Amino acid sequence: VLVQKAAYGAKDIRGMEVAGPINIPLGKGIVGTVAKTGLPEVIPDCSIDPRYIVDDAARLSELCVPILYEGRPIGVIDSEHPEKNFFTEEHLEILTSIANISATKIVKTIIEERNEVLARFVEENPSPVLRVDSAGYILNKNRASASLLEFWHVNEDQITNQQVLAEINRALSSGSSKIVNA
Fold first, then answer.
1. Which of 106, 96, 145 is nearest to 123 (CA)?
2. So what's the pLDDT on residue 178?
3. Cα–Cα distance between 88 and 95 in angstroms, integer?
4. From the CB of residue 79, how many other CB atoms can be counted at a distance below 10 Å?
5. What's the rounded Cα separation, in Å, for the pair 179 and 170?
6. What is the predicted pLDDT for the residue at 49?
7. How many CB atoms lie within 10 A of CB 182?
8. Confidence class for position 54, pLDDT limits 50, 70, 90
9. Buried/exposed 147-170: b ≥16 CB within 10 Å, e otherwise
10. Which of 53, 112, 149, 178 sits in a 20 to 30 Å window from 138, CA-based?
11. pTM here?
């Protein structure tokens, strides 16, 4: 289901939120069709297109462009106009560029949010979590690893205990993510 997130005009009551947003099922209406197919559409006359969904006032032409990431639709940008045959190829190119920029921004934000969650998970984990290279340099660590590092006699973020280093290198060469015998 697509949820209307932004609008301009009567539906935009404070310049920030949509008054009475509508849900559009995937494949329904022009917007839902574009979301399902991933193909942009220019509708010169909405009055003769049975897919047109009237949400506040009827418009006569519509331009609908998918927001794509790795070839898959992640959203849709839709524009309507009260005149028939209003939208041109130039409008389509402009809105497609805006959709491409939007996709980049949306995906970047999603990745940043996931990275923040992962970082919090590692930092708040009650178990020691370390990322160590083969020379024993500690690349990342969480608070819970402090007592373990103290036990291992770590100096300046490098593990010098030969038994621990041997176990780290055994784990690294076997592809394991755990040190068992240290």
1. 145
2. 66
3. 11
4. 17
5. 8
6. 95
7. 17
8. confident
9. ebbeebebeeeebebeebbebbbe
10. 112
11. 0.66
Distance CA 127, CA 60 (A): 61
DSSP track, 9-77: STTBSSSSSBSS--EE-TTSHHHHHHHHH---EEES-GGG-TT---SSS--SEEEEEEEEETTEEEEEE
Containing H/E element for 141?
strand 138-141
- Identity of residue 169: N
Q: How far is it, in rounded angstroms, from Cα 80 to Cα 64?
A: 9
Q: Are 5 and 23 in contact (CB under 8 A)?
A: no
Task: Give yes or no for a contact between 18 and 8, defined as CB atoms under 8 angstroms apart.
Answer: no
Q: What is the mean pLDDT of residues 152-168?
A: 84
Residue type at 33 in one-letter notation: T
More confident of the two residues 118 and 182: 118
CA distances for 99 relative to 93, 103, 112, 127, 157, angstroms: 10, 6, 20, 43, 45
b/e burial code for range 49-78 (CB count within 10 A of at least 16 → b) = eebbeebeeebbbbbbbbbbbeeebbbbbb
